[in-house]
Amino acid sequence: MLTYLVLGLLVFLGVHSVRIVADDWRCRCIERFGEMVWKGIYSAVSLVGLLVIIWGYGVARQQPVQLWSPPAGVPHLAALLTWFAFVLLAATYIPCNHFKARWHHPMLLATKLWAFGHLLANGTLAGVVLFGSFLVWAMVLFVSAQRRDRRDGVHHELGLLSRSVASVLVGTLAWAAVAFWLHGLLIGILPLS
Fold it and tell me: Dihedrals φ, ψ of 66, to 5°?
């Protein structure tokens, strides 16, 4: 039963796509209600969507529809992709690093790598719906963000080696915590076991 998973994806990815499909409306809402109110509503709707995704995926995992069995070695490839995703995620929040200077939107690249890695390692219908949706969404949003940057003449600061190293260290520590502990605790699967 994928109904709740799809509903959660529509809410979560929908609210995160407003800037692509209705940027003028978004700007008018921010002008009318203020940025803090907009961010509050945006965050609340995002959280609801995320919770419905988690619940819907949990329900769908109880009766999995297997589309393929991932070949041996794929979990290690997925682990490598998700490690780099965590490094890029850390780079999103650490200013003046080479990752941000080079790719401008490291969180979207992190989402693509995370989704692709999980898509390779999960051969279920629910996995394809969940991770495939995030992968397509991140690809579309990345292209849109790059176009917006070019249109608006956005320039990104040059990266500092110390900030890039910090991104790798923080990302690696976060990845290790998830891969060796939190993923098993929260999802019930230890990916590297």
Answer: -80, 120
Range(s) of the domain holding residue 43? 1-63
The model's pLDDT over 14-41, given as tens digits with 9 standing for 90+, comes to 999 998 899 899 999 999 999 999 999 9
Tokens matching residue 57: 């995926």
How far is residue 116's CA from residue 135's CA, in Å, rounded to a whole number? 6
DSSP per position, 12-52: HHHHTTHHHH-HHHHHHHHHHH-HHHHHHHHHHHHHHHHHH
Residues 6 and 78 in one domain: no
Q: What is the pLDDT of residues 50-80, one digit of tens each?
A: 999 999 999 999 999 999 898 888 988 999 9
Residue where a domain terminates, one of 63, 88, 110:
63
Same domain for 103 and 165? yes
Q: Estimate to the nearest angstrom the gap between the alpha carbon of 102 and the chain centroid.
A: 19
Q: State how far the Cα of 34 lies from the Cα of 193, in Å rounded to an integer.
A: 48
- What is residue 124's DSSP assignment? B
pLDDT category at 81 given cuts 50, 70, 90 is very high
Backbone angles phi, psi at 176, to 5 degrees: -60, -40
- 58 and 8 within one domain: yes
- The CA distance from 99 to 105, in Å, is 9
